[in-house]
Amino acid sequence: MDDTRTLRFFNRGPSPVARLVFFSVLSLLLLFVDSRFQYLESARKVLAVMIYPFQRLTALPGEALGSVAVYFETQETLLTENTQLRQQHDADAAQLSQLQAILAENAQLRVLMDLKGRVDYPMQMAEIVYVERDIFKRKLLVNKGSQANVMPGQVVVDDFGVVGQVTRTYPWLSEVTLVTDKDHSVPIQNQRSGLRAVVFGSGDINEMALRYMPVSADIVEGDVLVTSGIDGTYPPNLPVAKVTRVERDPAYPFARITCEPLAGVDRHRALMIVSGLPELPERPEAAVEPTAEQERAKKRFKRRKP
Fold first, then answer.
1. Which CATH number fits the domain that encloses residue 193?
2. 56 lies in which domain range?
3. Is residue 10 a part of any domain in this protein?
4. Do 140 and 112 share a domain, yes or no?
5. Which of 1, 85, 160, 211 is the most exposed place for a label (fewest CB within 10 A)?
6. E-strand spans in the chain?
7. Per-residue pLDDT for the chain (306 aa), expressed as one digit of tens each?
8. What is the pTM of this model?
């Protein structure tokens, strides 16, 4: 009769159920002892120290990927914020420049209005609308013309002094020739010494010339030249220029005197037009010299008198 029993090569020990019960009871016992008497705390710490490097190695790839993602996200955010800040800075700078320009213009307008209230002759405000593009012509156009009773010959000033003179008028515009124009001249008086002369434009926006002055003339650097007011066109005592250089050469009869205009001929936008001046008496006509025939007739008339 064949033996069909299975051969047992290994001793399997207790049954699985018995082992499950045993280890469950052991686990519960260890849990109770650990929670009650803290016997396994030191073992737990040693075990945590031993497995910490393995925990770090397993967590390192995830942390590296997270750091890379955070870096690129932060970089993109910073670039976006930097662009926005630059745009905001440019906008703020433009607004600040406009505000500074408005404040400067308001300050100049206040000075002009104060000047208008202090003088004894009528003035009206005008605004520059065009500037001559030809660099050899020192002219500009203002927004007041014949409709505003502006006439050729009237003087244009700002808060620093004489800017120029109206040379042509249109219905709503007027052409102003600046004092620095090479064909323009202004009768002046030295504020310090009282010496009268005529200052001429040179064509340069920053330079004027005091011509035909003898080398012995009482003029020094720093002298302020004001309008003399003796020609009936320019009001008296308006600043025109300041002497910047005086060259005297005994070999020449005249000194070379260079001046700088005091008015903002190339800076301001608002100007004042002097609308009228006190009328001066008419200039008397020059005496006409009698002709030779008139002299002979006069002598014959005298001989005939008894």
1. 2.40.10.340
2. 18-118
3. no
4. no
5. 1
6. 123-131, 139-142, 155-157, 162-169, 174-178, 185-190, 196-201, 208-214, 224-227, 239-247, 254-261, 270-274
7. 455 455 555 555 678 888 888 888 888 887 777 777 776 677 777 778 888 888 778 888 888 888 888 888 888 888 888 888 888 888 888 888 777 777 777 766 676 667 666 666 788 888 889 888 777 778 899 999 999 989 998 999 888 889 999 999 999 999 999 999 988 899 999 999 999 999 999 888 889 999 889 988 899 999 999 998 887 788 888 899 999 999 998 888 899 999 999 988 777 788 889 876 656 566 666 555 666 666 666 666 555 545
8. 0.59
